[in-house]
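All the exercises in this workshop are built on plain-text protein records. A record pairs a protein's sequence with a compact description of its fold. The structure tokens are whole numbers drawn from a learned vocabulary of backbone shapes. Once this layout is familiar, the rest of the handout is easier to follow. An example says more than a description, so a record of this kind follows.
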Amino acid sequence: MEQRGESQVLFSGEESRIRPQQSPTPYRDISVEQPGWTKILVLAGIITVLGSSSPVGYNIGVINTPGWVIKQFCNESVTSRFNIALTSSQLDILWSSIVSVFLIGGSVGSLTGSLLADKIGRRGSLAISSVLGVIAGIMFGASKGANSIEMLFVGRIFGGLSAGLITTIMPMYLMELAPPRLKGAVGALCPLGVTVGILFGQILSVYRILGNETYWPYCLAISAVFQAICALIIPVLPESPKYLFVIKKNPPLALKQLKRIRNANEESLSDEIEILRLEDQENIKQGDTWNIRKVLKSKALMLPLLLVCALQAGQQLSGVNAVFYYSSVIFKRAGLSTASSEMATIGAGCCNIFMAMLAVQTMLWFKRRTILLISLVLTTLCLIILGLSIGFIDSFQWMPYLCIVGVLGYVLCYGLGLGPIPYFIGSELFEVGPRSSAMALGSMANWTGNFIVGLTFPTMDTYLGATSFLIFAAIAVGLFIFAKVYLPETKGKDACEVYHLVEHGFKSRPLNTRVTVLENGGELSNLTEKSYL
């Protein structure tokens, strides 16, 4: 690696600044000077949202409404092929297996994403996820004609593997492409795509559209069309410059890709190039080669890993799927017809999309930590309102309307911070070396949380009823306390700085620490001072 002149990197408050010692110019805020949206960055965002994260959400949202139709097919298939008449409970177990195997595939795909992201790159891993999604679509489309429930299983497994890869790699890929001031905005694109996919899955799976006996295989397979298009366009997109520089040790190619992404010359990118060198230097100092086992054993990475996994799992354990499950029932109790309650549920999904779109902008306006804590407080209040109002829904005439307020309030408050931030916070808490492993573990925690809620909520609903929402509220409170004490503010900070804020585990005090980084023999030090956040 070429020798660098002496330089000094100072981190303080919201900004990361770089000043060569020979330069008389004052500190410059790289988050202000870096360019904004370029054509190639916009293209990367559009392609990955429509062809990667939207299919993830679609596969989650499409399966519920036509479930009784597909269960009927499964029953007829088993009877005709094996001459076995399934009981109601056996059919329920079979259907639960078909649904839940997607979540298991998501967990496995998440862990696989760590290996692929560093071996073949972020872009190549996304291409593989698209191919897996296309295979899933083919299985779905052919399952009815082949009278095969096995194809449904295989399709759900491949769809889950694809989804796990996407939720691990897509946020990391986009944030490594983005200039500093747009990191939060591009990080919010992954949950935006998931939200859009869920809504379209709910709409297209309505019985009158595609969720019927004739068209359900095509209903399940539609997302594969978008993933096929994505697979064809992804090779045109740039590879992550950070991956090329730090992991592949190819600075010339990294610089070439960086200039292409920013549409700028090398002189105007000197600050970003210096940050790349710093991250490479830190990665070499920490061991250069990372994997999941090494990340799990690292004491310095324990706290950020716990933060990522807690936020990812907590996003699901806060009961978002339970709220949507209850929403149609609540709308019916408020006096809406079955058809109207379905439309109202879709309306709640539209509110979710609105908040996901708004999050792209709010991540530019507000600090991550602040908006997450506000979201957790408001989400907790809405869960308490839901728990009490559902419990007393027959006691007062106006109580169903309070339930509606609770549902819509939860959707809005969840989308404010708890929905988008856990997806991408790992890319800001971890440096490039251990980042893929940390993102994989966080994504696995998310899928595991989803699986736990799906597995336990029916039982909780049967025995606890509305009290279930108070349990979700308690989990949100615990997550708030953990984030309040240990989550550093990452907006405007480089990963090198964030690492030194949380490297001492539970002894870390990220709100009362300023990090000063000196090069060429200087020391990395933490200076405790009065909290400035």
Q: What stands out?
A: The chain has 23 helices and four strands. The two ends are 37 Å apart (CA to CA).
